[in-house]
Design brief:
By secondary structure, the protein is mostly helical. The protein has one domain. The protein is built from 8 helices and 2 strands, in the order H-H-H-H-E-E-H-H-H-H. It has a two-stranded antiparallel ribbon with strand order 1-2. The longest helix has 31 residues. It is globular and about 65 Å long.
Length: 300
């Protein structure tokens, strides 16, 4: 077994990482109880979902570290959960503005800047879109499609994997892994684009709610869970990460990614507790709030 093959430093490292995961879970549980007691019911579940992202990813990484054969399932579980969290973060920004109706009143004459990352940050010639009920619907659809289609694609991948037809290191055009990965990547970009468009509009209005640190934490989870893991897996597949018997290059890359995620998600869990636990004042009524520079002020 894995634990029997570990030397003393290896067992110490595994014990420390497991302890960090347990502490992250306890911190989240304590934070969830606080949110349940102190936060209005309209925002309660959304904020709990967002705060759960880091401890869930840490837990799945810890299980994958101790049970290597479960890595496929733990990675997919973390991916599904994170897809839901992206949609929840967009909904949280709308809720913090007072809800959809109040947001439309606040930005009655405003426009969304769609030339933002990760899809269109270089397309400065794109027009600014009026803020209407329809544009808000398309932004919500941009994140909701990811929360729906990623679990479907993950389920399809697991079915193909159990049948021996799906392998992450087989990226030939004839294999399903390449096409499923590209499709998931495109869905991810559209979801992150929708969140970026909304954040760019409300970041000044919600500055008093610390939306910038909250968005930064969300971005760190995106980069570490998606980009960092993908880069390490590519290095392992190309044998850039050397093998260390009894671990192959691919298995060693998986361990490195999981161990880094446990430490990083532990830190994000602790920081999230500080950021989300603060008491924030409610925003002023829409009639008293001016829009961000560059937009017309709305009339009472």
């Amino acid at each position: 077994s894995l634990s029997a093959g570990l030397d003393l430093p290896g067992r110490f490292l595994f014990a420390i990482l497991t302890l960090m995961t347990l502490i992250a879970i306890l911190v989240f549980i304590e934070e969830a109880v606080y949110i349940y007691r102190k936060i209005p019911s309209s925002k309660r579940s959304i904020i709990i979902w967002i705060n759960a992202a880091a401890p869930v990813i840490s837990t799945t990484s810890c299980i994958g570290m101790w049970v290597p054969r479960s890595t496929m399932f733990t990675n997919f579980t973390a991916g599904i959960f994170f897809a839901i969290v992206i949609h929840k973060f967009l909904m949280m920004m709308i809720k913090e503005c007072g809800g959809q109706k109040v947001l439309l009143r606040r930005f009655e004459n405003g426009r969304f800047t769609i030339s933002t990352g990760p899809c269109c940050c270089c397309c400065l010639c794109l027009p600014r879109v009026p803020i209407t009920r329809q544009t808000l619907f398309w932004l919500k659809l941009g994140t909701f499609q990811f929360a729906v289609f990623r679990p479907v694609l993950v389920f399809l991948s697991i079915v193909l994997w159990t049948n021996g037809n799906y392998a992450l290191d087989n990226l030939s055009p004839k294999g399903p892994a390449l096409w499923i990965s590209c499709f998931i990547g495109a869905l991810t970009l559209f979801a992150l684009w929708a969140v970026g468009i909304m954040f760019r509009k409300v970041r000044i209005l919600l500055k008093c709610k610390n939306i910038i640190p909250k968005f930064a934490l969300y971005q760190f989870i995106v980069i570490l869970n998606q980009l960092q893991t993908t880069i390490i897996n590519i290095f392992a597949t190309q044998k850039i990460i050397p093998c260390a018997p009894p671990l192959s290059s691919k298995a060693r890359g998986s361990y490195i990614a999981q161990q880094l995620l446990i430490m990083e998600m532990f830190l994000i869990t602790v920081i999230s507790r500080v950021v989300y636990r603060r008491k924030y004042h409610d925003l002023e009524p829409p009639e008293c709030v001016a829009e961000e520079p560059g937009d017309k002020k709305e009339t009472p």
